Amino acid sequence: MTQNEPIVVMKGITIEFPGVKALDGVDLRLYPGEVHALMGENGAGKSTMIKALTGVYKIDAGSITVEGKPQTFNGTGDAQNAGIATVYQEVNLCTNLSIGENVMLGHEVRGPLGINWKKTHQEARKYLDQMGLGHLDPHAPLNSISIAMQQLVAIARAMVIDAKVLILDEPTSSLDANEVQDLFAIMRKVRDSGVAILFVSHFLDQIYEITDRLTILRNGQFIKEVMTKDTPRNELISMMIGKSAEELSQIGAKKERRAIGADEKPIVSVKGLGRKGSIQPTDLDIYAGEVVGFAGLLGSGRTELGRLLYGADKPETGTYKLNGNQVSINDPHTALKHRIAYSTENRRDEGIIGDLTVRENILIALQAIRGMFKPIPKKEADEIVDKYMKELNVRPADPNKLIKNLSGGNQQKVLIARWLATHPELLILDEPTRGIDIGAKAEIQQAVLDLAEQGMGVVFISSELEEVVRLSDNIEVLKDRRKIAELENDATVSQETIVDTIASNNAGKEA
Amino acid sequence: MTSASTTAVKKTAKKSRRLDAQMIPTIAAVVIFILMLVMGQALFGTYTRLGFFSSLFIDHAYLIILAVAMTLPVLTGGINLSVGAIVAITAVVGVKMTMAGIPAPIAMIVMILIGMAFGLLAGVLIEEFNMQPFIATLATMFLARGIASIISTDSLVLPEDNNFDWVSAEIKIIDNPKISNDLSFNMGVVIAVLVVIFGYILLHKTRTGRTIYAIGGSRSSAELMGLPVKRTQYLIYFISTTLAAVASIVYTANIGSAKNTVGTGWELDAVAAVVIGGTIVTGGFGYVLGSVVGALVRSIIDPLTSDFGVPAEWTTIVVGLMILVFVVLQRVVSAVGKKE
Q1: What are the TM regions of this chain, as residue ranges (chain B) (predicted)?
Q2: Which chain B residues are Cβ-neighbours of A110 within 8 angstroms?
Q3: Alpha helices (H) along B49-179
Q4: Are the C-beta atoms of residues A351 and A343 closer than 8 Å to each other?
Q5: Is the previous residue joined to A375 through a cis bond, with omega within 30 degrees of 0?
Q6: Element (H, E) at B288
Q7: B4: nearest CA in chain A?
Q8: Strands, DSSP E only, in A184-266?
Q9: Domain range annotation of chain A
Q10: Is-same-fold flag (A8-247; A268-509)?
């Protein structure tokens, strides 16, 4: 589509951290008017590459040329001055300031009496209008709008600095389908104005929808630059993980619910479990050996229901039966004692403890159950750590590494290991595959199936309907903080079934 | 057309409500200040006198300056614990120099320079050695207090007809024949007003000011947005500590003497003023003018408690209770804000 010169040429980029070569001679070319995706598993070097281009990291070897001029970046300011703007996965704006102030921060219009706020807000409105965000009030506080909108505001901000290159680092990971379309509309607008966009996403559908060109990285090495339209998916995936497409085991072609025997008792049976403002009273049975999927849009109550089952939020209504016995699960500690475990969707803030090692992260929940004054014998601890790290294939296989230095997928595996070490009967996994690469995703999906096979009850919460349908025996469909349907998974149930169920249900609106 | 104007109205309504939510603690401080005045007036009958206001401002000009000085770091989520000790060291040095016959203007310049040096030191500790502002300024606090004590532990008195007079000399606007009811001010008050104006312009009319708020919102965001965070941090502690030296000049001129123990605990009075004035201690929200009101509230507690016949020691408890109330108020406000 473009025969012109690239705006950015990165050649032979090498970055070393103590003991690791994060990037080894990687090339990247960004063309004006193109969306370019950086592809690779977690740990392939995508974020390092982006940080090299945004001036966060200094490069040890190689060259960066922007519009023909060689550049050395000594900080994010330098990169911005060269016309490179970045929107990060976690929105990096200031929530204490207004929308307009955020857009214009550092570029306020100044008059003889200092900042001219009227003009500054007018400018902000102009840029928001350009992005099709004219409905936003620049005076409103940033935290009055959704994360998705904030991300779009961050893009408007990039336009203020007249960026020639716009980097979007996993902007879609917390957006729902509509919001992604809003984002893409803006991306197309920006692209058509001649800006080069560098896009990172784990969603292949999105990659194929929006990008023109791909650069594939693996283990810090440059693999190939290809045009998106000439590259079939399986070829792309095999380039990313370095295995041929056939080797990629298709996990559980599609699961169907097994028959529940008449004498089988559910592990967990709740009636009218609910909490005001979080989820309306819900009935739910979970049997041993079953994967129960929670499907629904962001804010539908799927996480809230999971948290309620675990006692992370205290239920206000309903009864809770565990193996036929009445219990009250009002806090996580009680839940763990009753062998119910919950792995959070918020891996970074509520999951891992970054400055502890992998080993400590695995053992911490078990230790908590046993009590702080009964240390786990070293031998037992070693066995536990070793067993689960092997079973879940945690890489690197070094239990003494700080968990924050692991890739997202491997952090997730460690978290699952943590809960498995407590030998749960019911394991609630909230978005265990979000934001992790394809290889780790497949491994985690397989682990879910294996655990159910071994007789564990698993609640599987995910925003990706495809994996919910593929893995679940039973699917609870949630909408507007209410359970609207329970689908026994069989050949007739597909993603469309769930989408239709959600779309056709309007009863919750008035409630 | 109609619908468009309705939404416009809605928008403004929304906007002003949000604005209110953010300003509630500050407004509450104003209300409480007025209530205290009314109560004082009703019970003791002296609290609306011109003379009362005059002395309130003259006696507490230094606290207003310190409140501004403290607002800057607190807005970024930091703190400057050294301000009280800076008052001590600069006061001791200034008075010593004047006693030695050095002209007051030179002494004052040296006082300011000492403030600047300590501000720079705090900046270096925080930015180059990656220290928490709390720890860095705790260190400079001990250092400044220690040096002040080494210089002298005596009560040093400014010599007669020193040139500090021009700061403290009262200027009468209304010369009231009734006793102690003149409307008057001195240069100390003028300096305090100038400092407040300076603080207001800095925070609301300059990019540096916006960067201060941005750091308070999220330092890493501010850095990723390409704002000059490091330079701004240096500037904050430099200005803050220098203003402490200015406060010292105003206070020393008023009192006419200095001692190494002067200003003990004033950093906390300044924090109290800032918090009462509605600035949130974790940073990002707050106003200089709020801090001024906070300083006035803090100042009026002293005459009130003494008029009530409450022992002076109780003032501390009253201040403590007020801070408690304001912090709780802020929590409630931010909780309500989040719900919206």
Answers
A1: 21-44, 79-100, 106-126, 183-203, 234-251, 271-296, 308-329
A2: 207
A3: 50-75, 83-99, 104-127, 133-151, 165-168
A4: yes
A5: no
A6: helix B288-307
A7: A135
A8: 196-200, 213-218, 221-227
A9: 8-247, 268-509
A10: yes
Q: What is the ipTM of this complex?
A: 0.81
Contact list in A for residue B217 (CB cut-off 8 A) is 94-97
Q: Which residues pair with A20 in a beta bridge?
A: A17
- Judge whether B77 is closer than 8 Å to chain A, CB to CB: no
Q: Which residues of A touch B220 (CB under 8 A)?
A: 92
Q: Is A388 helix (H, G, I), strand (E, B) or coil?
A: helix
How would residue B193 be classed by pLDDT, with cut points 50, 70 and 90? very high
Indicate yes or no: CB of B210 within 8 angstroms of CB of A141.
no
Instruction: Please name the member of B205, B222, B228 whose beta carbon is closest to the beta carbon of A113.
Output: B205
- Is the bond into A315 cis (omega within 30 degrees of 0)? no
Best mutation target among B18, B225, B231 (most A Cβ atoms within 10 Å) is B225
Nearest chain A residue to B200, by CA: A114
Homologous superfamily (CATH) of A268-509 is P-loop containing nucleotide triphosphate hydrolases (3.40.50.300)
Inspect the interface and report whether the beta carbons of B223 and A76 lie closer than 8 Å: yes
Chain A residues inside the 8 Å CB shell of B224: 76, 86, 88, 92
Give pLDDT tens digits for B43-54.
Answer: 888 888 888 888
What does residue A22 show for φ and ψ, rounded to 5 degrees? -70, -35
Tokens of A342: 């919950």
Give the CATH superfamily of A8-247.
P-loop containing nucleotide triphosphate hydrolases (3.40.50.300)
Q: Do A97 and B213 touch (CB under 8 A)?
A: yes
Q: Contacts of residue A108 in chain B, CB cutoff 8 Å? A: 207, 210
Residues of B in contact with A161 (CB under 8 A): 226
Using DSSP's 3-state secondary structure scheme, residue A224 falls into strand
Q: Are A301 and A480 in contact (CB under 8 A)?
A: yes
Residues 6+ apart with CB under 8 A from A387: none
How far is it, in rounded angstroms, from Cα A123 to Cα A130? 11
> Contact B152/B92 with Cβ under 8 angstroms?
yes
Closest Cβ–Cβ partner in B14, B22, B222 for A94 = B222
**Integer CA distances (angstroms), A494 to A458, A465, A470, A501, in order:** 20, 9, 9, 11
Contact by Cβ (8 Å): A47, A38: no
Q: Is the pLDDT of residue B28 over 70?
A: yes
| pLDDT tens, residue order, chain A (511 aa) | 445 789 999 999 999 877 677 888 999 999 999 999 999 876 788 888 998 998 888 899 999 999 888 988 888 888 888 889 888 877 788 988 999 999 999 889 998 888 999 999 999 999 999 888 888 999 988 888 887 888 889 888 888 888 899 999 888 776 777 888 888 998 998 999 899 999 988 778 888 999 999 999 988 889 999 999 998 887 887 788 776 555 555 555 566 666 777 778 889 999 999 998 888 999 999 999 899 999 887 778 899 999 999 999 899 899 999 998 999 999 998 998 899 999 988 888 888 898 899 999 999 988 888 887 888 899 999 999 999 999 888 888 889 988 988 888 889 899 999 999 988 999 999 999 887 777 788 888 888 988 888 889 999 998 888 888 888 999 999 988 889 999 888 878 887 788 788 777 765 443 3
**CB-based contact A216:A236 (threshold 8 Å):** yes
Chain A contact for B218, CB < 8 A? yes
Does A115 sit within 8 Å of B210, measured CB to CB?
Answer: yes
pLDDT (0 to 100) of residue B10: 41
Nearest chain A residue (CA) to B17: A140
Q: Which of A10, A72, A441, A56 is nearest to A215 (CA)?
A: A10
**Is the CB of B226 less than 8 angstroms away from the CB of A101?**
no
Return the number of CB contacts < 8 Å for A and B.
79
Spatial separation of the C-alpha atoms in residues A1 and A194, rounded to whole Å? 12
